[in-house]
């Protein structure tokens, strides 16, 4: 006879899980008791939010389902941000949560929350296990739902008495869910239509999103782009789906996208959206998005089609399968005039910043990281200006190597994400690029990297501000830096912070000391000359390293498409 | 803005209704009326909702509902043929001099008097949505003391995709 807790371990092993991230508590003691003897690596975090981001990034990097285990009540509420992050970006995760004993549910018991109620809007699906006999089936279903169709996080809430109850039930050999049958086989007639549209097009463009990476379809995408000579632009989460060093690559499109990409979107006559969802950061003013183009949309999620933009050729199905079939129907072709134009836009409008200054600029730091790694590292980011510069100044060439919170834009994602990615690939170089604001949010997880010998490299671009918000305040709110200054001087009057008289002002916190306090190596870089030696030292070091780069404060991310404007209304400076 | 009629076949499990309602209201849509009850096979329940909104919005609602694991099939019946009924109980003030007129009017709509006392009559109407709307219109000049509507119940074969 096995207990519910045994079923959990069994379910994890059956699903091929090798690593679980989490933090224990009263309502999960029984599961942790079994985990103690299980052949599964457990990574103990310092905050449940860290566990969810680690599991998320583990999934993004490896393609497998990320798993985390947290306790009831505050354990669950601490996990919400991570679940919502994964939900917005379609990341396969299973989050097992403890719950108070069944008879106490609804009684405001100690460490009780309505887990199902709270997680419903931020998960793909969730379960409250009411009968231990259902548990093996539920666990198997949870993994299936997490990784099929458009992937997403699934919560399995298990009351303590269920964990202790015994059963002889086993997981079903096959999963059949009456209400959930993701479409995998696309309609060949639609693919024919698309092939035809490609043949007719004079100015075709591939608009590529996370779906290509999630479907592991980079090869098929490249084959299509090369056969029909179609330029490629990617979304933030599509970075790496197509090598940015390829001549057909126009770089990222959208609010902080390249001139070439945004111009190509505005002038193309056929826009092929592949695994992308026409997000508002990409489209700008929807009515003026790709105004002259026939629009095709290949996606596995039926609700994404026609959600934001009306499309002419919807193709519902798995991206990899559709591209394969499409390749068989598309003959080699080349629209040379169009290719000349797009190449010219790329050449004449690269991402630029002030290269003449002696000051250390954040864009320069990222460029040097790219040069030193040649695009081979796994890069995670926090959220803000540095995130956009990492999209722009690092050339992303491999899928599953750029891990960033796109849909939710969660500050605090990058550092634990680097740990999760490193846990999946111990031999690869993993670099987290963050700002001084974001990096503080889950800094406590640094000790996890040290203990588990996960040698992540955390680069902090310290501009002593919450940079992206500051930029918006500069552009749209009269330079009134309300709550965006992180150093002690220059704060607005309502924050009532007067810098200490006499002594030289020091930026707080001291990131180098924090790194050392956690057991990591801490380095500080203030000048261009100091940068490369520090990065080299960091990348070669056997353990985790934090490199704090003091960079110029008032730098803005350009180009920028202001809110409500069309993609062609890019701003390039404040002049 | 059209009033859309959506029917769905769902798992008869605790939490399913909360999930559906949560999804719709979470996206800012309003459920005007909702009716749900088990089917002959008690593993399933059938749901009828009326949701006002434009076609685009409702297309999204339907697709989002279809994605839910507990929802087996969903159809927007709005532009199709379907059989529908709604049941309304309404208590109206009925002073002696108005009583006969109210009863006659009710009879014209096939509405029945299901309860009465010295001050009021409680009428029940069960009919198609247009008929019910007309009846409620006729009650406007009267003093309505209380009213309870079941919400529409619609029957049409739900296409299973």
Question: How is this structure best described in words?
Answer:
The complex is a heterodimer of chains A (575) and B (161). Chain A has 575 residues and is α/β, with parallel strands linked by helices. Chain A folds into 3 domains: 166 residues, Thiamin diphosphate (ThDP)-binding fold, Pyr/PP domains (Rossmann fold), CATH 3.40.50; 161 residues, TPP-binding domain (Rossmann fold, 3-Layer(aba) Sandwich); 189 residues, Thiamin diphosphate (ThDP)-binding fold, Pyr/PP domains (Rossmann fold, 3-Layer(aba) Sandwich). In chain A, the strands form 4 sheets. Chain A has a 6-stranded parallel β-sheet, with helices on both faces. In chain A, strands 11-10-9-12-13-14 form a 6-stranded parallel β-sheet, with helices on both faces. In chain A, strands 16-15-17-18-20-19 form a 6-stranded parallel β-sheet, with helices on both faces. In chain A, helix 4 links the parallel strand 4 and strand 5. The longest helix of chain A has 16 residues. Chain A is globular. The mean pLDDT of chain A is 96. Chain B is of the alpha+beta class and 161 residues long. Chain B folds into 2 domains: 75 residues, Alpha-Beta Plaits (2-Layer Sandwich); 72 residues, Alpha-Beta Plaits, CATH 3.30.70.1150. Chain B has 4 helices and 9 strands. In chain B, the strands form 2 sheets. In chain B, strands 5, 6, 7, 8 and 9 form a 5-stranded antiparallel β-sheet that branches. Chains A and B meet through loops of A and helix 1, helix 2 and strand 4 of B.
């Amino acid at each position: 006879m096995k207990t519910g807790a045994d079923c959990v371990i069994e379910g994890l092993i059956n699903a091929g899980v090798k690593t679980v991230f989490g933090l224990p508590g009263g309502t999960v003691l029984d599961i942790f008791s079994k985990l103690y003897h299980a052949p599964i690596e457990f990574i103990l975090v310092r905050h449940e939010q860290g566990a969810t981001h680690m599991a998320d990034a583990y999934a993004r990097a490896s393609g497998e389902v990320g798993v985390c285990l947290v306790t009831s009540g505050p354990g669950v509420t601490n996990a919400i941000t991570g679940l919502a992050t994964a939900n917005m970006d379609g990341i396969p995760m299973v989050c097992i949560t403890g719950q108070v004993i069944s008879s106490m549910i609804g009684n405001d018991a100690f460490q009780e929350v309505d887990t199902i109620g709270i997680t419903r809007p931020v998960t793909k699906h969730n379960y409250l296990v009411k009968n231990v006999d259902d548990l093996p089936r539920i666990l198997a279903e949870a993994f299936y739902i997490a990784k099929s169709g458009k992937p997403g996080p699934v919560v399995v809430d298990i009351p303590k008495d269920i964990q202790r109850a015994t059963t002889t039930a086993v997981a079903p050999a096959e999963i059949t869910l009456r209400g959930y049958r993701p479409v995998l086989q696309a309609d060949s007639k639609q693919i024919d239509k698309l092939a035809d549209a490609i043949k007719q097009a004079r100015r075709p463009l591939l608009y590529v999103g996370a779906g290509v990476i999630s479907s592991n379809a980079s090869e098929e995408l490249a084959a299509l782009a090369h056969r029909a000579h179609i330029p490629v632009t990617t979304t933030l989460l599509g970075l790496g789906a197509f090598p940015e060093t390829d001549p057909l690559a126009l770089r990222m499109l959208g609010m902080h996208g390249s001139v070439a990409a945004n111009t190509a979107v505005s002038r193309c006559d056929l826009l092929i959206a592949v695994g992308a969802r026409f997000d508002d950061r990409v489209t700008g003013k929807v009515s003026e998005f790709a105004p002259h183009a026939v629009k095709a949309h290949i996606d596995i999620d039926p609700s994404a089609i026609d959600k934001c933009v009306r499309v002419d050729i919807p193709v519902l199905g798995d991206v990899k399968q559709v591209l394969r079939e499409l390749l068989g129907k598309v003959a080699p072709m080349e629209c040379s005039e169009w290719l000349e134009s797009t190449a010219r836009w790329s050449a004449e409008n690269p991402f630029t910043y002030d290269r003449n200054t002696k000051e250390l600029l954040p864009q320069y730091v990222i460029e040097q990281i790219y040069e030193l790694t040649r695009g081979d590292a796994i890069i995670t980011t926090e959220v803000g200006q540095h995130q956009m510069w990492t999209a722009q100044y690092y050339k992303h060439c491999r899928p599953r190597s750029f891990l960033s919170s796109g849909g939710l834009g969660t500050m605090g994602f990058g550092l634990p994400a680097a740990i999760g990615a490193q846990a999946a690939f111990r031999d690869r170089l993993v670099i987290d690029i963050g700002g001084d604001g974001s990096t503080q949010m889950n800094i406590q997880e640094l000790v996890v990297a040290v203990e588990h010998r996960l040698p992540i490299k955390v680069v902090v671009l310290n501009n002593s501000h919450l940079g992206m918000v500051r930029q918006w305040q500069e552009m749209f709110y009269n330079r009134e830096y309300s709550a965006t200054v992180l150093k002690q001087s220059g704060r607005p009057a309502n924050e009532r912070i007067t810098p200490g008289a006499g002594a030289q002002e020091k930026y707080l916190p001291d990131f180098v000391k924090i790194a050392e306090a956690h057991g990591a190596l801490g380095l500080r870089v203030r000048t261009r000359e100091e940068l490369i030696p520090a990065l080299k030292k960091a990348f070669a070091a056997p353990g985790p390293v934090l490199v704090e780069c003091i960079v110029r404060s008032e730098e803005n991310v350009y180009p920028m498409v202001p809110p409500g404007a069309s993609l062609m209304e890019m701003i390039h400076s404040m002049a | 803005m059209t009033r859309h009629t959506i029917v769905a076949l769902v798992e008869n499990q605790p939490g399913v209704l909360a999930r559906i309602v949560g999804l719709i209201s979470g996206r800012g849509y309003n459920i005007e009326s909702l009716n749900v009850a088990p089917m002959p096979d008690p593993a399933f329940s059938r749901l009828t909702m009326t949701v006002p909104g434009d076609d685009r919005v409702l297309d999204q609602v339907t697709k989002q509902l279809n994605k839910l694991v507990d929802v087996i099939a969903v159809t927007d019946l709005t532009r199709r043929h379907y059989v529908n009924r709604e049941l309304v109980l309404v208590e109206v003030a009925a002073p002696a001099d108005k009583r006969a007129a109210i009863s006659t009017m009710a009879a014209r709509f096939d509405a029945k008097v299901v309860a009465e006392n010295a001050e009021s009559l409680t009428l029940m109407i069960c009919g198609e949505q247009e008929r019910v709307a007309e009846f409620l219109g006729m009650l406007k000049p009267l003093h309505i003391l209380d009213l309870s509507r079941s919400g529409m119940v619609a029957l049409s074969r739900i296409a299973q995709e």
